[in-house]
Amino acid sequence: MVVMNLRVRLVAVFGLFFVVFAAHAQETALNKLNTHARELYQQANYAEAARVGQQALAVAEKTFGGAHREVATALSNLAEYQRAQGKYSEAENLLKRALAIDQKVLPADHPDVAVDLNNLALLYDSLGRYADAEPLYNQALNIDQNALGSDHPDVATDLNNLAEAYRAQGKLAQAEPLYRRALAIWEKSPDSNNRALATVLNNLGALSVAQGKNDEAERFLSRALDIWRKTVRPEHPNLVATLRALGSVEISLHAYPKAETIYKQAIAIDEKTHSKNNQLLAKDVGNLGLTLFLEQKYTAAEPLLKRALALNEEAFGKEHLTVASSLNNLAEVYRAEGKYALAEPLYKRAALIDEKILGPDHRDVANDLNNLGALYYSQGRYADAVPVLERAMNIKEDADGPDSPGLVQILNNYAIVLRALDRGNEADTLETRVKEIQAKSKAP
Fold first, then answer.
1. Would residue 252 be called left, alpha or beta, if left means φ above 0 and alpha means ψ between -120 and 50 degrees?
2. Is the CATH number of domain 1-105 3.30.450.70?
3. What does 276-291 look like in DSSP terms, one character per residue?
4. Domain 359-444 belongs to what topology?
5. What is the DSSP code string of 167-183?
6. Which of 31, 131, 204, 288 makes a 20 to 30 Å CA pair with 244?
7. What is the pTM of this model?
8. Angle at the Cα of 18 from the Cα atoms of 13 and 20, rounded to 5 degrees
C-alpha cells in the first residue's frame, strides 16, 4: 500500500500595503476598508475579504483617478483575495494592472514594484507556472536587496518565494540556501513576523521531505506547527496543512502513534469547517485509515477507508484518480483481512479508472496490476496471476527503464508466483535482476 504523499505549498504574500494618502473623509473610509479586508484575509475569509477589497478599489479610483499608487495597492490587494479563492484569471488581470501603474509612476527599482512582481509570480505559482514565476521572483529579490538591504524582512519573503519556485521545479540544491537565508533573517529580525517564520519552517520541512531527510523535516514542521497554534485560529488552513505534512513525515519515520494523533486532530478540524467540501476531510480520513493499516489495525482501518472512498466519490465523481487511489487502499485492507472477494472488484475498478485516464501503459496501471496479481497469489490463483504480473512488469520497464527500483516489488511478486508454479529457472532469473537493480541503486 502506498501512503498518500501530502504536499504543502504555503507561499505567503507578505507584501500587502495599506498606506493611504486621501483627503480626510476618503482617507478614513479607505483605511477602514483596507484594514477590514486584511483582517478577513488573515482569518482565511477570502470571499468576504474580496467583497470589501472591491469596495476599497472603488473608493481609491474615485478619490485618486486611474493611475495612482493607491489604486495600484487596492488592485494588488484585491488580486490576492481573488487568488486565495482560486479566481486566477481575475487575479492576473488585477495584478498586471497594478504592475503597469507602479511601473509608470515609480522608479523601476522601487520596492513597491518588487511587491507587484512578487505577487504576480505568486499567482503563477498557484497555476503551476513555475518557470514563469522564477524570473519575476528574481527581479523582486534584486530590487529589494538593493533598495532595502540584504537582511530586510521583505528580502526574506523574496528568498522564500524564489526557493518555492525552485523546489516545485525539482531544483532542491538551489532552493535550500535561499530558505535557510530567509529563516535566518526572520529569526533575527526585531519585528519578526511569526506567520512568515512558520511559513519558511513549513517550506523547509517540505524540502527536507523531498531530500529524504525526514528527521530534519519533523523538526521544522513541529516548530512551524507550534508557531501556527500560537498565532492563528485552531481551524486555520495553514495550521491544518502543516498538521497533514507532519503526519506524512511521521508515517515515513514509522512513528505511527504520532501520525494517528495528528490525523485525528486534522479530522476534528475538517468536520467543523468542511461540511460542503469533503476533499480535505477525505484526505485526512484516508490517511488515518492508512496509518492504522500500517499498524496492522485492519478492523479499525476498514471503516475509515470506506468513508474516505465515499467522500472522494462524492467530491470527484466515480471515475477520478483520487477515487482509484481510495479503491486500491480499501482493497489492500480487504486483502490483509482475507476478504478476497471484496478486494478483487476494487482492484479491477481502480485499474480501469487509471487506464482510462492515464492510458494503458502508465506506471500507475502497473502498480494496480501488481496489486491484483498479489491478490491472485494470496488466493492460490497462480495461473491467473502470471499474465497480470507479466503485464505489470512490461509496463513498468517501458515507463521507467529496466533498472528502475520501482520494478523490484513487481519482480519479487512475479518470482514468487513462478516458484509456486514450479517454474524455478524463470524465478531465478527475476531474482537475479532484483539483486542487480538493488546493487545499482545503492552505487554512488
1. alpha
2. no
3. S--HHHHHHHHHHHHH
4. 1.25.40
5. HHTT-HHHHHHHHHHHH
6. 131
7. 0.72
8. 155
